[in-house]
Amino acid sequence: AKIWVKENAYCKFIDYSYSGTENGTRVQPYNDLDDVEKTPGYGYFIKRGVRFSQGATRIKGHMATASNPTIFGAYGTGERPTFDGRGQGHCFYFGENANPETDKVENVKFYDIAIKRYPNCAWKIQRKSSFLGWYNCVSDSNAFKYSEAQLIINTSNYLDSVNYLPNELINCTFNRTIDDPAVDENSSLIKCGNGPLTTVNCYFSNSVHASWRATCGRGSSLKHSIIENSGIKGIQIRDNNITIEDVRIINSAQDAIEITGNTTGNYYMPNGTTIKNCFIKQGGSEASIIVREPSSTFQICHNTTIENCLLENGNIGIQSNDSYSMQIRKNKISGFSSYPIRIYTNYSNKVFNPAITYNVIYNSGALVVEDGMGAKIYNNTVDGEINLTGSSGSMVRNNYFQSLTNAGTESNNLDIDTINVANHFLNYPTHDYRLKSTAHSSINKGYNVSLTSDIAGTNIPQGNGPDIGAYEYRDGTTSNISIQRNHQKGIRIYPNPTTGTVHIRFDNFPEKIYQSEWLIVTDLFGHSLFQKHAEAFNGNMVKIDLSGFPKGFYLVGFGDRIKEKLVLQ
To answer: Residue 21: is its pLDDT beyond 90?
Structure first.
């Protein structure tokens, strides 16, 4: 998100390096934001390239509107204007808990602001403030003493969860680049109480506790973002209907994603959590994704879904000690020394009807369901052990495995050790478990369990019945990809993810089409950030440098025809 500043009576300019007559114009700006009365619907623009020490800016009872929000932004050229804490407390402080109705703040937006080195927080939002936004902002090394997080939103009262208090962050960076020995071990990067909080295309790194916490904000979401080097956990989920989508989480100390209950308040576990299309590597000493019920007094966690994720390396891939109708489907899980999936309970009657379907698991310990009832284990390719000792009423169908222990009802499974893997799998040594046409004991040999698509999205069945394993064989192909694919128009991007320079190749475009069009790079909201005419290409190849772009997710398009996702890290 960017704004273009056109000077008028509603714009006030601040230049901390300025000395002279002050009237808030670009020529005669104010030199301190705290000297300016904050009027709803006005814009307050701080000069770029300036770093300054600033105490807390307190705003309360400030009610702007959606059509005329109050804006804090930047003007001029150079780096973002930077608030430097240098021993201060908070930087921005909105609302007041004692009078949540009269002192709340609404419709305030921040653009291109950097806040660094405040002992408490960069922004503290008190109840019941809402419709706040942060765009292209940076928070670095704040909240190193006496604080919950660098950004704190409505964390004061669980009763506020009945309210709708939305806020959003887009294309922001939250980081800790200064290692302070006195840092508070509970300090996170973002903690949202009441919400929902929408977070898109953001980068988080080096948290002390957690990077992103949704503690009471129903319906919050984190999408298209990167989390690296989390001190304890990458994400903590403590309320209902939270969505984590398209997020890369690398190197968490304990857990990459924790789903748990509030230890004060109503003692409930989150319901309706969805985690999908995520890549998690080195997920932590405990588990990459964990559902953790703190004690037996908590209610059961309902309808958690984990799908289409890639989990690599750690102690445990997915672990749950509390679940009702949990769905674990279409994931690739590898390199977990203890368990790729572990379903168990510390308390009686806490696990019901988990469904584990169409997953690929290898180079890991045993998939275990140690307790509970009604587990459904369908169409997985488990190059290892499945152990259901301690559970009851399980159904195990259409799986590959190396061993199966204590299943309730089982049928239509295959032991990998008893088949010719070269005839069954496309490339068994490289863990490519797609089926060959010669997998006669698998194709059409499955039990109908009423599932509609496999791990690759192929419709089921392709033949007279479902196949065994995580992949459904498609007739007329050699690798589960249509033979027509080599003749289809497409964009190839490499390396992807990239740190800057990227090579882009266009396949099977007629010359007369692509030479009349543009290569366009956009953010996820369709804003054009880079374009280059096709006439500048070397044949069907082009190299571009995106090293100056913020880390995040982008779309590369050829005209308006085909778009591919690019990750800049």
So the answer is: yes
